[in-house]
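Lecture 7 notes: from sequence to structure.

We start with a single chain of 188 residues. Read the sequence below before looking at the structure.
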Amino acid sequence: MTVLEIWFLALALAVDAFIVSFSYGLVINKDRFSSSLKISGATALGQSIMPILGWYGAKSIYHQVEQVDHWIAFAVFSFLGIKVIVDSIKDEEKHQSSGKQKISLRELFLIGVGTSIDAFVSGSLLFFVKSDLCNSVIIIGTTTFICSLVGFNLCRIFKKFSHQPMEVASGIILIGLGCKILVDHLFL
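Now the structure, written as tokens:
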């Protein structure tokens, strides 16, 4: 994958982090700067660790699936994209927070893990498409941190808008990446 493709993947993966940060930004009034850094750090850490775990997991089974890796990448990216789109349509309220003023360490851990499950699968796909793990993790983690920080701080301006269009766009990006991998492997 090219750097641009990895960046698009990073943006698609960062949408959940952006939404969660946006939601927390709506309700947290005390220690906003500190809270924004904590949430952004938790999501970026999750999005950085999970692709590494997925990459090494895929490496252990690569020889068994080498002939169909492009189909696996296509299927998984398409599945993730469709799931993101369907979830955004089915559950408009899924990212609303509870109105807490402080964020606990446990809550930060759950935010980090919860927003990065799809990054685990993406990490395995990075292995199959022979992408550089270190650069990919840096791009994904940095993009997630920035998107999360922006989401937390822009919430006051954009609190009237729905998050659904961002999630649908994220799903379309994931499906597009899957199609590109398949086309590249079959026709180039």
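The first helix runs from residue 3 to 27. Keep this in mind for problem set 3.
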